Amino acid sequence: MAKQPEFTKYLPLDGWFRTQPASKRQLTVTFEQVEKILGAPLPASSVKPSWWTNVYPKIQSHRTCWLNHGWLVDEYDPASKAVKFIRTK
């Protein structure tokens, strides 16, 4: 899979998902927590549900951070700016 040049800004998030204990079956994180992990603000498009889809991209993107490590977005709550992930493997 080709790396999109902008993917490098999501490497901290990729690492965070990679290091979640196998015993964790679900996680709920706020946008603020994701921004702390990244050390940078999320893009404006992150308020759209489409940003949080589980569609595997053709080019490595922010979604591969969770998909590559067996996580899926289960719920997206735009009001609280929180996302619930569930582990699939």
Name the descriptors.
alpha+beta, 3 strands, 89 residues
Topology:
Elements (H helix, E strand, L loop, with lengths): L10 H8 L7 E5 H8 L25 H4 L3 E7 L4 E6 L2
Antiparallel strand pairs: 1-3, 2-3
Describe this entry's structure for a reader.
- The protein has one domain.
- By secondary structure, it is α+β, with helices and mostly antiparallel strands.
- Helices cover 22% and strands 20% of the residues.
- The longest helix is centred in the N-terminal third of the chain and has 8 residues.
- A three-stranded antiparallel β-sheet has the order 1-3-2.
- 12% of the residues are buried.
Radius of gyration: 12 Å
What is the strand arrangement across the widest sheet? 1-3-2
User: Helix coverage percent of residues?
Assistant: 10-25%
Number of helices, where a helix is a run of at least 4 consecutive DSSP H or I residues: 3
Which class do the helix and strand fractions yield? Answer: alpha+beta
Order of helices and strands: HEHHEE
Mean pLDDT: 92
* Cα-to-Cα separation, first versus last residue: 20 Å
Number of domains: 1
